[in-house]
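Bumping my old thread because nobody answered last time. Still need a sequence for this structure:
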């Protein structure tokens, strides 16, 4: 699966925190009431930003198990300054890590887990991997909170006629076949919603858009560069116009004249 640089994950952390759908938190709290300690697994944890955001919004003692394939990211996530300090009510939060491929998780691996969580993960899975993960979570009777899954919709201001071509090519890149795996990309939330519903779980979804303006110029520039480069990689015939388009958009960004809304969705699953 795709690996990400810690610098990129740190750059996007504030925008992620501002975007997540807070209306899904109360149902999570309601589900977690009861045990003396809840076990939360963060799949594809990166530098641990989801734990830093979510732990302080949930009451009670928490044990976080952070999963990632990248040992460098796990080292970042386990650092003293990276771990969540305490829960909503001041209770203790402990953190451990497990280096593993999360696409191989089964129900027995989730035994004793109350909540499975992830951020910006679903679009990197295949339909088969998504189905296996959903089946494991439902069988283990875990709640599930998947945040910040891309939906494929981007609105730039000011608009340009080339925006749509770049957006369509980028979405095709997100759905690409890589190493024999056909990624879900922006179809991920729809697929996950359908799988969990067929398994009898209660599923809710909520928008969680990035809203980037002049005060997030560094993040906007980094996202924009990756967006255009991926689009041109998918459709090489766009490269010449894409280079000029990117230079123009980056100049707007540097001047504080570019705003971007990048749509994501959050998904909450509660077992029947």
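Sorry it took so long. Here it is:
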């Amino acid at each position: 699966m795709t690996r990400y640089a810690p610098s990129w994950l740190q750059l996007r952390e504030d925008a992620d925190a501002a975007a997540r759908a807070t209306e899904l938190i109360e149902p999570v709290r309601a589900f977690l009431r009861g045990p003396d300690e809840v076990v939360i697994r963060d799949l594809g944890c990166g530098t641990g930003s989801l734990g830093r955001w979510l732990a302080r919004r949930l009451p009670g003692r928490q044990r976080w198990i952070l999963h990632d394939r990248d040992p460098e990211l796990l080292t970042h996530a386990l650092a003293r300054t990276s771990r969540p300090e305490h829960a909503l009510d001041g209770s203790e939060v402990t953190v451990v890590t497990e280096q593993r491929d999360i696409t191989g998780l089964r129900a027995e691996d989730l035994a004793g887990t109350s909540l499975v969580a992830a951020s910006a993960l679903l679009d990197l899975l295949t339909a088969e991997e998504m189905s296996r993960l959903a089946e494991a979570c439902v069988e283990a009777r875990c709640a599930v909170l998947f945040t910040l899954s891309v939906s494929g919709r981007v609105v730039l201001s000011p608009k340009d006629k080339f925006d749509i071509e770049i957006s369509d090519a980028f979405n095709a890149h997100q759905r690409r076949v890589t190493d024999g795996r056909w990624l879900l990309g922006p179809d991920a939330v729809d697929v996950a919603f359908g799988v969990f519903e067929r398994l009898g779980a209660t599923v809710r979804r909520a928008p969680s858009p990035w809203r980037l303006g002049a005060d997030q110029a560094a993040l906007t520039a980094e996202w924009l560069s990756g967006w255009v480069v991926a689009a041109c990689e998918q459709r090489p015939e766009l490269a010449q116009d894409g280079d000029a388009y990117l230079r123009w958009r980056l100049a707007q960004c540097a001047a504080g004249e570019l705003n971007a809304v990048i749509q994501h969705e959050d998904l909450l699953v509660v077992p029947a």
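The longest strand covers residues 143-157. Let me know if any region looks off to you.
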